DNA sequence: ACCGCTTGCTAAACCCTTTTAGCAAGGCCA
DNA sequence: TGGCCTTGCTAAAAGGGTTTAGCAAGCGGT
C-alpha cells in the first residue's frame, strides 16, 4: 500500500547506523565485528519497515541478479514439453531465483535477440531448451556466461540435460517381453532418416538403439517395422491400418510416441481389435493423451519436469561438470499391455 | 566473446565526449544541442564497440526495466492455457519487453512470494493469469503498480482480459441450429454449481448464459441436459454412455468443452453411432485434442493467444481504460457437424 | 606517557546509466 | 568595454545497494 519503497537507507536511519552496517547485517556477514545490539536494531528496523532489497541495484554491484534466462524454441508454449519449464520454474523458485522466459520459434534472428535481451538484464546464466532433443546451434555468447543446454547438446556449451533414451528404449521392449510377447511385435514409427540424422534428433537415435539392443539381447525380432515421416496421430492411424490389412499375426505394437499410439488405437478399433486383449500397445513420452485413452496407454515417460529441475540445479551448481546429464525415463504402467492371447 | 561488457563510459571515451553526451545521443534526445559531429562520433563508437546498455542500471535511474511480471497459477505449464503465455511472450517481445514468469499453483503463500519476487526486480507491471477464468484473490500490491488480470477479474485491479463467452455460447448453438438441428440436442456438462458459483468460474456462467439465450431466441429446447462435476474425458464418457442407454432420439451433442467431447466420442463409438452422420458434436476450447479426433471436432475456441497478447498491450498502454476487455471466440469448423439424418 | 591491538563502526568508492544544473566560449548589441 | 544570449558540452548528483579502507575509542602492557 505505501507508495514509496523502503530503502536500505531508511532501515539504517531508523536503526541509527550507517547503510554499510545495515547492509552487512542484513546479508548475515560474520566477519563484521558489529555488536549484537546493532544486529538487533537493524533486523528490527528492517522487519518493522518491511524492507525488501532492490535486486537490480544489488546486482549492479554484485553482478548477481538471482535471475536466469530461459530461452527456448517453443517449449513454454507447447504442451509437449511444458514440463521442462514447470520443473525449471519450481527449482528456480526453491533456489530463490526467477526465470526470464523467452521464445524464439527456432528463428536464428530471434535467438540472437533473445540472448541480447537476457544479457542486457545481467542474468546469472542461460538455459537453452528445445522441444525435440537435438544438437542446437547457439549464437555467440560471452565466455563467462553460464550455459546449460536442456534437451539439447552443443559443442561450445558442454553442460547438457537429456533424457536417458537408451535405457528408455530398453524398458519399452522389456515391458512387452516380460509380459510374454515374443512374436508378432510391430515397431510403429521407426524412421531411417531420423535414426541416422543426428542433427534432427540426437536422442531419438538413442531410443531406437536401446530398443534394438534389448530386442537383440532377448533374441527377439520385430514381425514388422512400419516407418513414417512424422509422428502425428494420423500417421499412426494410416500406418497401423495398412499393417493390419496385410497381417493377422500382430500381437503387440511398440510405438515411437504416444501420438502415434493414439492413431494406432483408432486403427485397431476400426479393425475390431481390442487393446490389450487382442493387441498390446506400448509407447513413449507420457503425453497427456496417454491417460485419456481407454484403456490407458502404458508408456515410457519423457521426464520433462525432472529435466527442467536439473537444468536449473546444474546452472546454479558452482562446480558442475561438463557432459551429458541423463535423466531416467520412468515407466508409466496403465492398461495397454497383457500377455498374448492363446 | 570479449569478456568485459562494454559500458557507456567506454563509448564516451572512444568518442572523446562525456558519458552524459553519449547517453543523450544514444537515447535520441532532441532537446540537446549536441552537434551533428558529436552524434556521429558517439553512434560510430557505440556501433564499433557493440555497446548494449545495462538495463538494470538504467532502470535504477528511470524506474523502467522493460520487464513484466507474469504470475499465474498453472498457466505456463499446462497445455490448457499455454496460448496465454505464448501470446504474452510475443507481444512483449514486439514491444521490447521481457517476461518474468512465475507460477504459484494457486497457493496464497506462493502468490505473495511471487509478487514480492517480481517487485524486488522492479518490474514495469504485473499480469495475473489463471487457467480457469475466475475471480482471483490477489494479495496487497503497492498502488502504483500496473496490473492486468488475464482470464480473471478482481475488484481492486479492474483491468482484465476475458474471452467473450456470451457470444461464444451463442455461436455454438448457432452452429447446430444453422445445420438444421432442432430436436434431439443434448447439453453435456452443464453444471448447476458452476453456473451459479461465480467465484469458481465467472466466464463459464457466461458461456451457459449465451447458450441459453441463443436457444431461447431460436425457440429451441434441449432434449436432455447431462450435468457432471468435472469436465475430464471420462466424465464425458460416463455421462454420454448413460444418456444413450436411455434415449434413442439424440441427434446432436453440445459439450461444454473438448475433453468432455473426447469422452463422448468414445461413448458414441461404443454404441455404434457415427460422428457426424448419426450424431453431430460441437464443443468449446479448441483443445489440441480437437484436431486429433476423427472426424475433427468443430469447436468454439478459447482465444488464448489473442488474450495473452492483449494483456501485455493493455499493460503497456499508458491510457488504458478499466473494465473487462472481451476477446472474441473464433469458431473452428472441422468435421463433426452435419444436418440431422432422415 | 607512549605504543599497539582490538572492537565497533562509518566514509567513500563503486556498479552503470540518466538527468539536472551550469560552465566556457563566442557572437551580438549597446 | 560590458552585458546578454546562444551554442556545445561536462561535472556531479541521483538511483539503491555492497565493499574496501580506515577512523576513533578503549584497553593492556611497558
Explain what you see.
Chains A, B: Residues 6-62 form the HTH lacI-type domain. 2 copies of one chain form a homodimer. With 342 residues, the first copy, chain A, is α/β, with parallel strands linked by helices. Chain A has 3 domains: 8-53, 434 Repressor (Amino-terminal Domain); 67-162 and 305-326, 3-Layer(aba) Sandwich (Rossmann fold); 165-303, 3-Layer(aba) Sandwich (Rossmann fold), CATH 3.40.50. Chain A contains 13 helices and 12 strands. In chain A, the strands form 2 sheets. A 6-stranded parallel sheet of chain A has the order 2-1-3-4-5-11, with helices on both faces. In chain A, helix 10 crosses helix 11 (258-270). The model of chain A has no long low-confidence stretch (mean pLDDT 90). Chains A and B meet through helix 4, helix 5, strand 2, helix 6 and helix 11 of A and helix 4, helix 5, strand 2, helix 6 and helix 11 of B. Strand 2 (98-103) of chain A pairs antiparallel with strand 2 of chain B, so a sheet runs across the interface. Chain A binds a DNA duplex (30 and 30 nucleotides) through residues 5, 7-9, 17-21, 23-24, 27, 32-35, 38, 53-54, 56-63.
